[in-house]
């Protein structure tokens, strides 16, 4: 235990050294370095450790080290095992998808919706999980085969279970494309988006991506984009759209090809998303900007192709197909027979544009399936955007939607013929039954194998998480103890990253404004805005970043600068409060500084600077507002970007932030000088007795004089003058001015 106590005393010593920084002008970083040099020259920890080992075979820190290295070794074995299983799973999945086909076509039959009338004979009948029969007349039927047929009562869950394998492919680095195709009003948006109770493919895919990425033992960075292709133009759905002709137009989206053949959409917004909720909120936002309209076939009909893109980057998995890849989820515009919908004007143009691009998409997929040498990507914007996600090295799912209604039979035939064109020639109806059964058997086997691998991997991943937690708690305790000494030895890091532990230091030991100014430590501390939780709470020793605030025609002593944070707070609040109230009790403390500074350096129209505001109460709210406006005009005239961020040499200026009290000094002053209302004995804090444009402050002062019975106006004025002298004495006293300075000033 001797060793432990020695270490502890060293730790507390370094802490003490650190807390003394800035207490006296001598206790600066040079001093701290010297003391730490002395500490370094003392017998090293290793010497103690050796001694300790001699005296006792076991020690807490050694045990920690031993446990840490043991945990690390275990983790590396487990991680290797997970990587091996991942590679195995990837291989099995690929085999599985190859048997299934890299372009797969599903068919979903929409259920009947309330109020719809149907003829006695059902025109669209699902056969089994792959077949669908169309009944044209009594004795004329036609059978269509697909990779999967979803019956009218199939749930969103069932649909997603067929989609899920391609999400795994996406995480393996393949580009993936999920397309919802069909006549208008057949349920494309329902499948892709779903509703609150039955979420569709898009939310489920996003959720699965985040979940599977978390389970994968690799670090993924996801980004979300959303666009629509409307009348042949690309429109970013995450950018506010121009409503009036005078509104600026959003940047034009151009499609480019990078040297590797990847598609780049210029100016498309891609927002990094770290979790499901974040991505979904963006999706909801984008959905609001979609172009929809009411048509004869659908009350809320999508008049464009809506495309959602999740890009993912994973640089620590070398076995992935690509470092960055993407998954497109596309709710295609509804195919429609213009004659039937009787669309005209804009609706007609929209329908025509949708049909043309759908036809181009069909041509591309068909050419890919036939392995044609020329793939006609350039025939539409839709196929240009999807160029790198439809080819050889990617996975495509087409969900074809059909209506159950007899009157829609023509459109249903068109949709199913379109879908048939997309089906792999190899997997078409030419495939013999025997071969098909063999293929299905092999696929089932691979699926079981994959399930087995995933179960094992999950077991290991859980174990890794547990071990990591243990390791974190062990390494945290050992690194915490070294951190403080390192900070003292490395004074440059104190500047921005470490906050002095002022709350642990007794008040009398904390630096004053002057000492901070002399030692120069004030500017080394936090740049962040401090929130003042309650009026009486002590604030840490910290100062807001100060910027020069040039004022024309000012002598050096009266020129000022204010904190950037406070300036912004003031401005915001003045605008927000319609200039009536400058700050409230929970205002940033630094903004209080500015208002107090305005009592001492009152600025009017940026021309005249008086040391003290005239002790005139502004009871008329209009006047009060005007005064506030003067302040605003001051901030806006002198607080321009230039003056806020830099120094303008044409002005005489000095940094008044060094004259304004530090928040701590102000809070100290408040403690020492709480004002007792002589009439009712209540304690008013200094803040509330100051003359600012805070209505509360005025009320307090009004109370102060009004509550004294029989006080004449002259007496009131004298009290106010005395009171101002008192305040000025306090404030300026803290800044190093002598009382006779004020007497001279007042006289
Ligand atoms: N499987 C389903 N279960 C329940 N309701 C459905 C289903 N499919 C579609 N619907 C309902 O049918 C209506 C039309 O669906 P939806 O708007 O999704 O069609 P759409 O194909 O996207 O049409 P458009 O191309 O005109 O945008 C909606 O009210 C939707 O809720």
Automatic annotation (TrEMBL):
InterPro entries: Kinesin-like_fam, Kinesin_motor_dom, Kinesin_motor_dom_sf, P-loop_NTPase
Transmembrane segments: none
Family annotation (SMART domains): KISc (SM00129)
Gene Ontology BP, a term: microtubule-based movement
MF annotations from Gene Ontology: ATP binding; microtubule binding; microtubule motor activity
Keywords: ATP-binding, Coiled coil, Microtubule, Motor protein, Nucleotide-binding
GO cellular component entries: microtubule
Keyword Transmembrane helix recorded: no
Record domain Kinesin motor: where: 102-425
Coiled coil: 68-95, 436-477
Highest taxon listed in the record's lineage: Eukaryota
Annotated ATP binding sites: 182-189
Family affiliation: Belongs to the TRAFAC class myosin-kinesin ATPase superfamily. Kinesin family. KIN-14 subfamily.
Protein name: Kinesin motor domain-containing protein
Species whose genome carries this gene: Artemisia annua
């Amino acid at each position: 235990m001797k060793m432990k106590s020695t270490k502890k005393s060293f730790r507390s010593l370094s802490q003490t050294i650190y807390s003394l920084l800035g207490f006296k002008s001598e206790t600066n970083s040079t001093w701290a370095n010297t003391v730490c040099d002395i500490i370094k020259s003392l017998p090293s920890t290793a010497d103690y450790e050796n001694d300790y080992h001699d005296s006792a075979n076991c020690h807490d820190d050694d045990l920690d080290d031993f446990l840490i290295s043991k945990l690390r070794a275990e983790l590396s074995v487990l991680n290797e095992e997970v990587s091996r299983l991942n590679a195995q799973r990837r291989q099995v999945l690929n085999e599985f998808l190859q048997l299934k086909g890299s372009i797969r076509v599903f068919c979903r039959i929409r259920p009947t919706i309330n109020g719809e009338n149907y003829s006695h004979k059902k025109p669209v009948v699902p056969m089994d999980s792959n077949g669908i029969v169309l009944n044209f007349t009594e004795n004329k039927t036609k059978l269509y085969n697909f990779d999967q047929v979803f019956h009218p009562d199939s749930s969103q869950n069932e649909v997603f279970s067929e989609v899920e394998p391609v999400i795994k492919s996406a995480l393996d680095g393949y580009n993936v494309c999920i397309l919802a195709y069909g006549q208008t009003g057949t349920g494309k948006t329902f499948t892709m988006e779903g509703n609150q109770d039955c979420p569709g493919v898009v939310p489920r895919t996003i959720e699965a991506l985040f979940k599977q990425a978390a389970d994968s033992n690799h670090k993924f960075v996801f980004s979300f984009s959303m666009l629509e292709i409307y009348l042949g133009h690309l429109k970013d759905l995450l950018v506010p759209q121009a409503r009036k002709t005078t509104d600026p137009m959003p940047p034009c989206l151009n499609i480019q090809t990078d040297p590797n053949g990847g598609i780049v959409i210029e100016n498309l917004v891609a927002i990094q998303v770290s979790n499901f909720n974040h991505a979904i909120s963006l999706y909801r936002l984008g959905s609001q900007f979609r172009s929809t309209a009411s048509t004869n076939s659908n009350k809320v009909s999508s008049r464009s192709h809506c495309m959602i893109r999740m890009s993912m980057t994973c640089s620590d998995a070398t076995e992935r197909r690509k470092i960055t890849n993407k998954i497109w989820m596309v709710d295609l515009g509804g195919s429609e027979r213009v004659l039937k919908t009787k669309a005209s004007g804009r609706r007609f143009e929209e329908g025509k544009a949708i049909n043309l691009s759908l036809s181009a998409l069909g041509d591309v997929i068909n050419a890919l399936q036939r392995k044609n040498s020329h793939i006609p990507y350039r025939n539409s914007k839709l196929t240009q955007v999807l160029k790198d996600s439809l080819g050889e090295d990617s996975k495509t799912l087409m969900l074809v939607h059909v209506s159950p209604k007899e009157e829609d039979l023509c459109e249903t035939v068109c949709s199913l013929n379109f879908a048939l064109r997309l089906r792999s020639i190899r997997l078409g109806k030419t495939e013999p039954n025997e071969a098909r059964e063999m293929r299905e058997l092999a696929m089932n086997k691979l699926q079981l194998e994959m399930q087995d691998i995933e179960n094992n991997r999950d077991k290991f991943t859980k174990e890794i998480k547990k071990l990591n937690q243990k390791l974190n708690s062990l390494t945290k305790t050992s690194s915490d103890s070294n951190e403080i000494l390192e900070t003292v030895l490395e004074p440059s890091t104190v500047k921005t990253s470490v906050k002095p532990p002022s709350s642990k230091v007794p008040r009398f030991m904390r630096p004053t404004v002057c000492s901070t100014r002399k030692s120069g430590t004030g500017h080394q501390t936090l740049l962040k805005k401090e929130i003042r939780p309650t009026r009486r709470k002590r604030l840490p020793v910290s100062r807001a970043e100060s910027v020069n605030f040039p004022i024309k025609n000012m002598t050096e002593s009266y020129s000022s600068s204010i904190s950037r944070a406070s300036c912004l707070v003031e401005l915001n609040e003045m605008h927000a409060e319609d200039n009536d109230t400058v700050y409230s009790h929970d205002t940033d403390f630094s903004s209080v500084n500015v208002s107090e500074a305005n009592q001492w350096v009152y600025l009017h129209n940026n021309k005249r600077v008086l040391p003290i505001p005239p002790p005139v109460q502004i009871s008329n709210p209009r006047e009060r507002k005007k005064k506030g406006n003067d302040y605003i005009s001051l901030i806006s005239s002198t607080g321009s970007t230039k003056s806020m961020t830099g120094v303008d040499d044409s002005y005489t200026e000095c940094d008044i932030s060094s004259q304004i009290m530090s928040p701590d000094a102000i809070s100290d002053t408040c403690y020492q000088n709480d004002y007792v209302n002589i009439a009712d004995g209540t304690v008013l804090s200094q803040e509330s007795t100051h003359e600012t444009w805070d209505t509360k402050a005025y009320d307090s002062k009004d109370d102060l004089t009004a509550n004294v019975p029989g006080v004449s106006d002259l007496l009131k004025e004298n009290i106010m003058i005395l009171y101002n002298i008192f305040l000025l004495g306090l404030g300026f006293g803290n800044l190093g001015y002598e009382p006779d300075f004020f007497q001279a000033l007042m006289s």
